[in-house]
Design goal:
The protein has 141 residues and is an alpha+beta fold. It has two domains: 1-30; 34-140, Rieske [2Fe-2S] iron-sulphur domain (Rieske Iron-sulfur Protein, 3-layer Sandwich), CATH 2.102.10.10. The protein is 20% helix and 28% strand. Bound molecules: FE2/S2 (inorganic) cluster.
Length: 141
């Protein structure tokens, strides 16, 4: 009798944990507009995006090598910055929204040109990704 209670309690706890994970994943994927949906991977030539797909002063979500999500911001005619889209708070996917990079999970906001925190709860900025521009395309450096 005691054993059944213990196993039952563990099952409930495990189920609750699994449910929490599903909820967390769902929350990470929700709330983004079509512009915030990251590309699933880099293109066949290894580029992250065409430069022409990123108007000066804007940001786009991209797929990074290895399947990670990233963000490319065009800061000038041929100047870009790139960041990991993984929120340093709890790991949700940050995406471009308006003139900021926003985490849909708890509302952290980041500067699109530097990745610095503008609004918490995140305490650190987005990790920088080294990139270069060649032939009108943005490549991992
Ligand atoms: S995971 Fe991004 S603000 Fe919490």
């Amino acid at each position: 009798m005691h054993l059944e209670t213990s196993v039952g309690r563990r099952s409930v706890l495990a189920g609750g944990a699994a449910g929490a994970c599903v909820c967390a994943l769902a929350a990470c994927g929700a709330g983004g507009s079509s512009e915030s949906t990251p590309a699933p991977s880099t293109s066949a030539d290894g580029s992250l995006t065409e430069l022409s797909a990123v108007p000066v002063g804007s940001s786009v979500a991209v797929g990074l090598p290895g399947g990670a999500m990233g963000i490319v911001t065009r800061t000038g005619d041929a100047a870009v910055r790139a960041f990991s889209a993984i929120c340093p708070h709890q790991g949700c996917a940050v995406a471009p929204k308006g003139d900021k990079l926003v985490c849909p999970c708890h509302g952290s906001e980041f500067a699109p040109d530097t990745g610095a925190v503008l609004e918490g709860p995140a305490r650190t900025g987005l990790a920088t990704v080294a990139v270069s521009v060649r032939d009108g395309k943005v490549y991992p450096a």
